[in-house]
Write a structure and sequence with these properties.
With about 400 residues, the chain is of the alpha/beta class. The protein contains 15 helices and eight strands. It is about 40% helix and about 10% strand. An eight-stranded mixed sheet has the order 1-2-4-3-5-6-7-8, sandwiched between helices.
């Protein structure tokens, strides 16, 4: 591990500029979605060229090299994946942030389109520890006080929660209702790069859980769900419960004696931030189909930039020492991790599960989706209000449903 840590340290600033509170010095110019006139011109040129790029990709998509399980997906879905790869390759982080907008604002627009009442809990920033932005709990449907899912969305700690996440959970909520199960769903809109780094997001997640406790939720009635970077954040929470960080950095989170969370599910968790190539060949071998951009390596470096060596295993879950999660059964009742067979993150997730989770939790399962790419079911809700015969979706819905029985 020492070699890996040194490689991370080489990409970071000198210790004189290191902060452990998640803020960065001289960061006035680093703003979410900052745009210049040249940025607008560049975005226009990207979308003008898009039809030609898609045409070239369409010719390649019929190649025998494409795995059969992926080729069997609906054409509409495969076209979307091609567009996503093109957009991530062509646009800058700021341009994508500008086009997406802040998560809580996107939520307001989505609820208006869906004719739902917006329900937002504003969680005040932890100014004593250097946070300057509020986070928000965005409720899908009304608040409930008996059963709830706390969802930590994806985005590489760089992109905000987007419409497809809202639609995904609204679909799930309505499907469970048909089976007689009413579930509250609270989505945490947390701060992202370049305005916030570790451990800001962990503090905000802890604040969200404490908020649910104050509302009257028992830990056993809470299921935690995190996708991609949200999955990484999920394991940050578990690490902090098992091995508390100093209170000056992150407030403590203690479960009542004998209590544990009802379940934890993570789709395509980003568990190897510092060097995704070292865990196997999938990061490079799967680049031609997966929607994860190569710049996720830069996102990881930026997120870890100010993390002291002593805290790396919190921010980068796969770096945890042996038996780091050995007492995880005291924290959560059951665990499901899913990964796509065609994902760049496939190998790191398998290594993480086999080394850190499987030996210590008997109710932990790894589900590999054949033909699946990064956050596969979630992507379908960009272009559809219902899943497109996605084989993973019903398994996830059933697993979560069973956890509330």
């Amino acid at each position: 591990m020492n070699t890996r840590i040194e490689r991370i340290r080489d990409t970071q600033s000198h210790s004189s500029t290191m902060l452990t509170n998640g803020a960065t010095q001289n960061n006035d110019k680093a703003k979410f979605g900052a745009m210049s006139w040249s940025s607008y011109v560049h975005m226009a040129s990207v979308f003008i060229y898009m039809p030609f790029a898609l045409a070239l990709k369409a010719l390649w998509s019929n190649s025998p090299a494409v795995p059969r399980a992926y080729a069997a997906k609906p054409l509409k879905r495969r076209i979307f994946d091609t567009i996503a790869r093109y957009v991530f390759y062509s646009l800058s982080d700021s341009e994508i942030q500008w086009a997406s907008g802040r998560g809580h604002i996107a939520y307001q627009l989505w609820t208006k389109r869906c004719k739902l009442e917006p329900v937002v809990d504003t969680l005040q920033s932890d100014s004593e520890r250097g946070d300057s932005q509020n986070s928000h709990l965005l409720w899908i449907g009304p608040r409930r006080t008996d059963k709830v899912i706390l969802y930590l969305p994806p985005g590489g700690f760089c992109l905000p929660v987007m419409d497809n996440a809202f639609q995904y959970w609204r679909y799930a909520q309505l499907e469970w209702k048909k089976q007689g199960l009413d579930v509250g769903i609270a989505i945490l809109s947390y701060s992202v790069l370049p305005e916030a780094v570790f451990p800001t997001q962990l503090r905000q997640a802890i604040g969200a859980i404490e908020h649910l406790f104050r509302m009257g939720y028992d830990p056993s009635s809470i299921q935690l769900v995190g996708d991609s970077a949200g999955g990484s954040l999920l394991f940050q929470i578990f690490s902090h419960i098992l091995h508390p960080l100093p209170p000056r950095d992150v407030p403590s989170l203690k479960l009542p004696p004998g209590k544990r969370f009802g379940g934890a599910y993570t789709m395509s968790p980003w568990v190897g931030l510092s060097d995704p190539e070292q865990w196997g060949g999938s990061f490079n071998a799967k680049a031609y189909l997966d929607v994860v951009p190569a710049r996720i390596k830069a996102w990881g470096r930026s997120y870890l930039r100010y993390v002291p060596e002593s805290q790396l295993c919190y921010a980068d879950p796969i770096l945890g020492p042996e038996a780091w999660y050995s007492e995880l059964t005291d924290v959560v009742d059951r665990i499901l991790i899913s990964i796509g067979a065609e994902e760049r993150l496939h190998d790191q997730v398998v290594v993480f599960f086999e080394k850190h989770i499987k030996p210590y939790h008997k109710a932990a399962t790894l589900e590999v989706q054949e033909g699946g790419v990064h956050c596969d079911p979630l992507s379908e809700f960009v272009i559809s209000n219902v899943p497109m015969d996605n084989p993973l979706m019903p398994k996830v819905l059933y697993w979560i449903w069973k956890g509330f029985q």
